[in-house]
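Re: the 692-residue chain
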Amino acid sequence: MNEEKHDHDACACAHEHGHDHDACACAHDHGHGHDHEHGHDHEHGHDHDACACGHDHGHDACGCGHEHGHDHDGESKAMPIRLIAGAVLFAGGLAAHLLHAPLSVSLPLFLLCCAIVAYDVVWNAIRGILRGKVFGESFLMTVSAVGAFIIGEYPEGAAVLLLYQFGEWLTDLALDRSQDSIRAILDVRPDTANVLRGGQIDVVSPASVAIGETIVVRPGERVPLDGVITAGSSLLDTRALTGESVPQFRKEGDTVLSGCIAADGTLSVRVEKSFGESTASRIIRLVEDAADRKAPAERFITKFARVYTPAVVLAAVLLAVVPSLFTGAWTEWIHRALTFLVISCPCALVISIPLAVFGGLGAASRAGILIKGGNFLEALNGAHTVVFDKTGTLTEGSFSVRRILPEAGFSEEALLRLAAGAESLSTHPIAHSILAAYGIPVGPASVSDAHAIPGEGVTAFVDGRFVAVGSAKLMRSLKLTVPEPEAVGTFAFVAVDGAYAGCIVIADRIKPDSADAIASLRALGVERQIMLTGDAKPVAEAVAQTLGLDGVSAQLLPDQKLEAVETLFETLPKGKTLLFLGDGINDAPVLKRADVGVAMGGLGSDAAIEAADAIIPADAPSKLCDAIRIARKTHRITLENIVFALGMKAIFLALGALGLANLWLAVFGDVGVMLLAVLNAMRILKNPRRDA
């Protein structure tokens, strides 16, 4: 287990974002009274000894001698030809055998069939022995075939290898399909960039473009590097990053992320991040690393196969030897032992379980949810408590005018116009909100003698009238009494010519998606939904009441949020998990402490990438519901495959030991169970969000 080190100087929030993997790993004690699987068991590096059955499923997860999931064009094109040639030779040999032709006719056909179809199986068995991995599936199949030839069962010996290879080829096709969504993610990074140098455009590798240089993105091209638009505007297709199909409009001054596609306009972009640190590169690293972080079911299968395969080989040897010593029927019991060996291969488990997890990660990526590993996918399945940040998570994170409360003698429009005039020279966020609500440029000729009073507000003459906009303290300094508005938010009181004129209520806006997210989480069986925020208590309580949350704590500093989460852990049922959804910048300690820390809308944030366990680039809390649905479907399919594969293996092993199954049935039992398990695992890729 590696102890990751993150570059914390890259983040300005002064929190340590690295996961301490020695302190927080799978199935450890969090110190709050219950055994809780936190999930931060990041297993980096490819575990080439992960499974004892011999196949190389991309990461040697199974070990049966083939490399599943890798796109070897020559090998994939040659396999159907080999299978067809082998089938023709096998049919010829079988016909000769059934017609009682001389052995010199049928045996060469069977041997040639085996040589064409399964030379790589034999070679992988030899290679496994040389590497010390004796008990691989290639070894089991080779021993079974050779044994069948030794006892004179030539058709069965050839059939073992032919049917086995046919099943492996079908499995490879299924695995390739399951990786399509992951391949699509890895295609978000373009290979070239149009950089403006010396007045002309040079087409270069994005890695050679320096920060500060200007790149040109034409319609239909992907943005190669993160930056700020200096000229032009365009609709951007952000589907590869956010999973959202609606294009986003971007103009001069806006930030663009690499991986987006310019739809209808040419953009000039000043590069803000290097190629390796741009969003597309970080997504690719995240997806690649996710494959190495195993879910608990995957770790169980890995350990199971290491014990199971040698055990069944020993059982097969005993089955061949012990009864034969008493009965003398060596041929019969060796035949049963060979059948037992073929059936015993655990490939259905060690292929289908990682495939289900891999498919779940791919389905989540396709839905715009980047999950950093199978362990976090499993933790999402057990969600019991969801903790939300408020600003930027459940609310939009930007102030806007919510209500205008004029006094008698003033209309809403007149009050807003005078306030906008007074605030027109201010840079305060409240001033920006008032000017945005007014929506009409304020002519400088109409405003004079403007003064900013720190901590209180502004005064100015607007169209010859003295206007003061600010806090209740500013009103009191003008000898004015202001009423307590019946509203929640920040109040900008307005006085005109020395008389109180009204109040403008400014507040953060709840996201349209938030209410649906809360309702969907409750429908999914999430027991507690809590909001922790640093905002004022009245504002926080109003948001919580509007959304129907189960609890709220306000005016919290980051360390107090962490304490609140620790308190929630104390009442968390065993085997259940706590999720935190935040912006990934100010909430790094809580993101790390939660079983699954989810950063939303933080794809461009170093803190989000570092501290979170999952990332939702879109500003949509309901995406968390999709993540839970996908996790639950993945978990259910994984359990189905474990029960099905173990149950079928037990039945076929019993039949083989009792002499009720021959090698033909054994091969169908092994390959058939594997294919059914793989096909079941692939269901995760079909509408995973609709079937939870």
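Residues 380 and 628 are 6 Å apart (CA to CA).
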